[in-house]
Amino acid sequence: MESTDKEIEPRNGDVAVDPPTTRLDTTLLFPGPKQAEWDIMYYALGLKGRGSPIHTPDPPNAQPIEYRKEGFSIGDVILLDSRGGVDFHFNTCVSADSPFNGRPGYIPEGFSPLFPPLDLANIHEHVPFKGHTVLDGRSTRRYQIQGRVPGTVFDAVAEQMAILTIPEGVKSRDVIDVSCFRKYIAANAISWYKFMNEVHDRYATNGDLRLVVGWDRCSSWSRVTTSTVTVHIPHDNTANTRSFAQFSVGANAGGTGVLQSDMDGRPVLDPDGAADVVYQNQSVFLRTLNISVCDNIWCKLAEDFRPYVEPYKKIPDGIPFTWRSESMEMHPANGINKLLLKQKPHAKFAITEDNDWISVFKPDDPCLPAANEFLSRILEVYNICEEDDIVFLEYKPEVLYRNYLKHDHDISFTLPLWSPTIVAVGAVGYLSRDDGKFITLFNARAPGDSTVRGIPSLPALRTKIAPNSEKKTKRTAFDLLFGFLNLGRKSGPPQRVTFPLKAGEKAAHIYTGPTRHRRFEADDSPMEWLKSNTAKIIEIYGADHNITSEDLALITGTLDAHDYALFVSACHREGSVAFEVDVNPRSGQPWGAFLPANNGQFNSKVSRHRGPWETVLVSCLRVTSTAVILSR
After folding, report:
1. What are phi and psi for residue 194, nearest 5 degrees?
2. What is the pLDDT of residues 592-604, one digit of tens each?
3. Which residues lie within the region annotated Disordered (predicted)?
4. What does the DSSP assignment read for 295-327?
5. Fewer CB near the terminus (10 Å): N or C of the chain?
6. Torsion angle defined by CA atoms of residues 227, 51, 183 and 337, in that order, rounded to the nearest 10 degrees
7. How far apart are CA 134 and CA 166, in angstroms?
């Protein structure tokens, strides 16, 4: 039988031949997309999680040789300008006359360095990339271009790539606990903004000021950047024609740590008389504290700057004075700080660090998220804190504890509880977003009034109860010696256990007395029960508790303890933390205490003597979009 034209005509959902494509002259439609090498590099390499990629890693030739041999340093106050350069002014960790500070005219009048000085033990140096290293960054972002005719916009897609090659690896240095800078910055931020603008005409806008707290340095590097922007153009005549315009650019760059003259570019001798020495002074990434002020302060700063910009132009009262920034626009912290100041309207300053936004990247992010998306992710992981008129971020201890705890108990215990409470095997509930406590909705073995509302009981299952046990913790040589020296004393010493702390790594630990392990005997019925009843449970409880199916958990096992000690730290120096058990506690007093052996930001929870059995770890079933799994 012959086919007819109608039979071979594509139907909806069939693969059809692409409509014809035309390329138009867009000169009169919209200005060509901006594709500066700096922008391409930042969007692509910013996703690598190392902070701000630096377009020109070489330190300024105008600085003293001592500074140039080292490169950009911790404590530097900088602007990242719109042309991709690091605009260094002064360093907050050294005296004004130090060769590692700025030139005399670049240091504010009355300058005094950070006090107390930055403790060298508060700096972590490591080697994240050894030997030949290639960092391949790619970004695909969608945005709109304003047309030349008012009110017209064009959808665009920018596909950007940057490949950074570092032949001899990277050395890194970071401040461990940046809180030491906060009060100092708040005391000086206003005068620094005035200095940048009124003295040095930098046209900095709110959020542009940054203080270096970390860097990645190498001795040589090369970089390739490419960008293709595709602009889609609607066609007025026929729906069967698709029009677009493509704009492609590419650039190569490279550098080495050889000191060069700012006059003729020739190598220069250092004070020791050596020439052509290659220094590890190329800062390919910088991590910064990012400094914003509240709107009231900024309006006053803007008014003070107005005479320097437009001394003869009258602007009506009540209209804030603004100008175009000459610093980079896409730094994530600018938008984040602005949103944080709205969250805390009484704060005068917002100070965030690059690690705040780096930590919430997702592996499948196609480009740097927008500020609102960043803040949404940040609020899941961080608390917004306000202290001394400063708004800043600190990790939620319950999130750190849940994500980083490693324990020696049964491997089925995948969900640690930062807020121990009484949880029964068979409990159906969720983790509270506020404090990480497990909220029980009902018990699947006896749903109570939920049965009347359509949720059946879980089929009868045996619950296995393991005997009381005390998990042995490996003790250091110091712990053993401490115990040996106290043998024979009547009251005996407090039992002591020590946990390691590694600089640059998050830490979470648990220590318990005797424990009790309850769990369902092996059976598939809990999984089938949860799969069958999840929709009904969410229908009944979802709105009141603001939960979805993916928040729901069915507890299949619990580890309970009378005595427990929980510890978590987001930043700390290299060393250890010890927990000492009080062997003669009074009723209601803490079971013991953590004794940090170094400085840092710690959170801990210790049970009370003669308290109830409470659940510290659970195993559970959870629902995903495709299955019911044993999960965190």
Report:
1. -60, -40
2. 999 875 566 789 9
3. 1-20
4. HHHHHHHHHHHHHHH-TT----TTSPP----SB
5. N
6. 40
7. 6
